[in-house]
Amino acid sequence: MNISNMMGTQDLVQGFPQVVADRIEDAIMTGQFKPGEHLSQERLARAFGVSRIPMRDALTILDAKGLVMLDYRRRAIVRTVTPELLRETYSIRMLLEPYAARLAIEQMSPAERESVLQSCAAMDAIADDPKRGRLARQAFYELFYSFAGSELLVDMIMKLRRMVERYHVIHGIGSDIHSDLRKFIRSGDGRGADRWVVDHLQAALQSQLRKFESDK
Description:
2 domains, single chain, 10 helices, Arc Repressor Mutant, subunit A, Four Helix Bundle (Hemerythrin (Met), subunit A), 3-stranded antiparallel β-sheet, mainly alpha, 3 strands
């Protein structure tokens, strides 16, 4: 585990588990922490300049997001993504996300529709930027699906998305990949969005499986 570049951030993260969790999430997404790696609470607490309690709380947040797994001793291990996990995750997402998209579009007000369209366009504009693109995707889909009216549904979807996010393919996807989805949102076509999401997820799964094979 290399945590040297986390040193010197004590003034920024002291006592804030969510901020600590966000920093560790970045380290997982960028590959600084590897799949299957044990995250020592004691070492991370020293690196961030916090006590064990906020560090434990930060790792609990990451466990809820699906990025780490806590064993019966509350030891944290970075979740390992396998082709089997990719397929299982996407099969569940293909049930939940089209449903959420259709419900959201059918229930949006005109003002809400416009805010989602703006968020979608902003996401596509920075799609090729690893960190900013990832955060923009999270923000868009969380906003979009929130209009389905089910906090539980959104939480389930976002956890599944984060579990496999580091295998998201960011290169060569174009700057306007969601243009058809925006058309469905703008016209209020929930069923069209439903079909688009299924096709999009199927293509994403195949891209991520290819990335997984190439990273071996």
